[in-house]
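Worked example

This section walks through a single chain of length 317. The input is the sequence exactly as stored; nothing has been trimmed or padded.
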Amino acid sequence: MNTNILITSAGKRVALVRAFKESLQRHFPQARVYTTDMCPEMAPAAYVSDGCTAVPRVTAPEYPDILARICAEKRIGLVIPTIDTELAVLAAEKERFEARGTHLCVSSPEFIRLCRDKRLTGAFFESKGIRIPAPVDKNKPRFPLFAKPYDGSLSADLHHIRCAEELTPDILANPRLIFMEYIDRSIYKEYTVDIYYGRDHNLKMAVPRERIEIRAGEINKGRTVKALEPYIRQHLGHIDGCRGCICVQLFHEPVTADTVAIEINPRFGGGYPLSYAAGADYPELLIREYLLDQNPDYSGNWTDNLKMLRFDDAVFV
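Given that input, the structure is written out below as tokens.
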């Protein structure tokens, strides 16, 4: 049986690599955690892993074949993709890899498509009884409003528009932008929820974490919050086609308990190390499901109000 793990597009994900190494060693002491990256010599996580292989861009036509060859050579039992552009590519290859003894930690193509298109994401949330920001007619706007690409990521091309003068012709003419109610961050708190779904597409664990401070689109200071866990269990207990770790972004107003969801990333989020430190060992769950063929039950055994304060560190080569 293949028991090694491969984390793709490793980049700066040092904490994620370390988490998988710690969990894997408990079950398979001889197993290894490998990585891939376009430029291994410039990827800090490459030096923390047990070996990193250079690969082309994930959208290159030859990428799936190259990844399959690496998995065969390294005896990979589980692949963990980490960037949005890779998810649809690997979802289409799931059966081919599994036939060779390699599990891809990726949701169904339909669910990934839903997450990538914010219009579909909004319809999904509403089908689950979760409020989304109210749509705004850009030709009859109410201010303030918010505009973002329906297919965007990495917090790019976002617009907080306060008045008519800020609603420029370029913004109005951009066909990729969707316009909506602005959620005031001075009133609402922003959360990302790290959620794990099993192979049965059922919720196994959910850790809401408040985004206290953001840097370059990623949480820099945050804390875990138990109070929102029952809401997630009530509304998102099962998602067809969803597997592994995803992160849901939402806003919550503590006085009225109004909760507004905005997007889903069907992969490990950049702030997952906080959930891991709180006891949400998703690498352990993945190993139990995909390498040990177990079916874990739901668990709420994680630490409430654990605070994370990030700082810069370095790898010297």
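What to look for: The chain is about 30% helix and 25% strand.
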